[in-house]
Amino acid sequence: MASTMKAMVIRRTGGPDVFEEAELLIPEPKAGQVLVKIAATSVNPIDCKVRSGAVAILPPFPAVLHGDLSGTVVEVGQDVRKFKEGDEVYGLVGWTGGEGGALAEFAVCDEQLLAHAPRSLPLDEAAVLPVVGITAYQGLRRKIRLEKDRMLLVQGGSGGVGHIVVQMGKAFGAQVAAAASSDEKIAVVASAGADWTIRYDQETAAQYVERITGGKGFDVVFDTAGGANLPLSFEAARRGGDIVTIAARAIVDLSLMHSKGLNLHVVFSLLPILYGEGRAQMGQDLEAIARLVDDGLIRPIIYPRTFSLSSIAEAHRFLETESHYGKVLVHVQ
């Protein structure tokens, strides 16, 4: 194997044009780590925020970004028990701690942050699942225990997290409504299995709550937009219901939440990567998600336009237009 690899790095924060190609040494796995030859990665909103400097999460420069990956184990470090050379895996690389990111031909990964890739998906497509799958699973299984026949509303149902929440909600036996902003995106949430669809730009919360729940409200609202959208989720929930959000960085009036006795749950799936606690649970969640995929209960929806490692700037620029649906895939090999 060669000693160097191609990578896309940033040496400062800024717009998508800060990405540049670099030749880096292929890292060596330490104890508990494996070296993965990366097949693909995907773009998540957090990747764009890190690149732009909008959040205070940044590995040392020159920084290799992105956490999602799929690929093949080519070398194992000491004390690795879960994987062997040749295993196809998917999961996360702990890029925030200087372990390197997924925008490279190879990465060393903590074995706890990986699982065997779903057998029923092409290996490159598995790369779109880790962040969104873990976020959905933590929200519906770890934060709450979504029960059969509960009424679930997914705000932003055609997005990366949203379309997985729709499918996972159905897999867990819920009755699912999903909101989106265009006819194209409504078709996406319908294909994901939503029982009801909502054009949120054409219906008020009061109107769709009456139409779908008879005015009672939803048992669970999974809000992928957050921020200024949270009060709409409070309005859509039944008294005593649960709100799960992945975007709580906002100043929001909680009066309605208080008066309805709602429970607010925040999911920030990168915490184990940032602080090291809970990494084993992430691996367990990835294993559970792979089983759901192989059981035919989840299938990621990938936007038709895909990108290569060299065109990562275009991939970031495209994601920031918010015109996509599902997930944006980046082929590395």
From TrEMBL:
<dbReference type="InterPro" id="IPR051603">
    <property type="entry name" value="Zinc-ADH_QOR/CCCR"/>
</dbReference>
<keyword id="KW-0456">Lyase</keyword>
<dbReference type="Pfam" id="PF00107">
    <property type="entry name" value="ADH_zinc_N"/>
</dbReference>
<dbReference type="InterPro" id="IPR036291">
    <property type="entry name" value="NAD(P)-bd_dom_sf"/>
</dbReference>
<dbReference type="GO" id="GO:0016491">
    <property type="term" value="F:oxidoreductase activity"/>
</dbReference>
<feature type="domain" description="Enoyl reductase (ER)">
    <location>
        <begin position="14"/>
        <end position="330"/>
    </location>
</feature>
<dbReference type="Pfam" id="PF08240">
    <property type="entry name" value="ADH_N"/>
</dbReference>
<dbReference type="GO" id="GO:0016829">
    <property type="term" value="F:lyase activity"/>
</dbReference>
<dbReference type="InterPro" id="IPR011032">
    <property type="entry name" value="GroES-like_sf"/>
</dbReference>
<dbReference type="InterPro" id="IPR020843">
    <property type="entry name" value="ER"/>
</dbReference>
<keyword id="KW-0521">NADP</keyword>
<protein>
    <submittedName>
        <fullName>Bifunctional protein: zinc-containing alcohol dehydrogenase quinone oxidoreductase (NADPH:quinone reductase) Similar to arginate lyase</fullName>
    </submittedName>
</protein>
<dbReference type="InterPro" id="IPR013149">
    <property type="entry name" value="ADH-like_C"/>
</dbReference>
<dbReference type="InterPro" id="IPR013154">
    <property type="entry name" value="ADH-like_N"/>
</dbReference>
